[in-house]
Design goal:
The chain has 157 residues and is mainly β.
Length: 157
């Protein structure tokens, strides 16, 4: 007797809203959370969408081809072209460690470890951008002191 077990996936993939040190987001791949999506587009532009509307980007379209996004172990988030040449980064290099990029439920994209960079695209529960206190707000130079999280981005599905 042969027993066949079929495991089928749901019509909608599980949401992935995080990247850990060493992970890569390839071309046309994305992170998402609810209605938010952070996508590494084919034109090498990393774009954050809210319900299909662009709210933030790296403005790197046309600066390469076959690009990918890497969350590095030095806390730097970098877009590399096909020759592995960096074309954009968060300029958040720290000492090597375990870092995590998160697209949060407030639409903000954060690098966790110690907060030091943000897209400043958070949305409060009232829907007013920047209206609540549940977010990381870096100083003018992009440095946040005494914070345990770093806001990077989230994506929608």
């Amino acid at each position: 007797m042969i027993l066949i077990i079929s495991l089928t996936s749901s019509p909608c993939e599980a949401q992935k809203n995080t990247m850990f040190s060493g992970e890569i987001l390839g071309m046309q791949s994305s992170l998402w959370y609810g209605n938010f999506r952070l996508i590494m587009q084919a034109d090498c532009n990393l774009v954050l969408f809210d319900r299909g509307r662009e709210v933030w980007s790296t403005n790197t379209e046309g600066k390469g081809s076959f690009c990918h996004l890497k969350m590095q172990s030095d806390a730097n988030l970098v877009i590399y072209n096909y020759n592995d040449k960096p074309i954009w980064s968060t300029k958040t290099s720290r000492r090597n460690g375990n870092y995590m990029l998160v697209l949060q439920k407030d639409r903000n994209v954060v690098i966790y470890g110690t907060a030091f960079w943000s897209t400043k695209t958070y949305v409060s529960v009232t829907g007013i951008t920047g209206a609540d206190d549940d977010h990381v707000e870096p100083e003018e130079a992009g440095v946040v002191a005494n914070v345990t999280e770093i806001v990077v981005a989230t994506g929608g599905h």
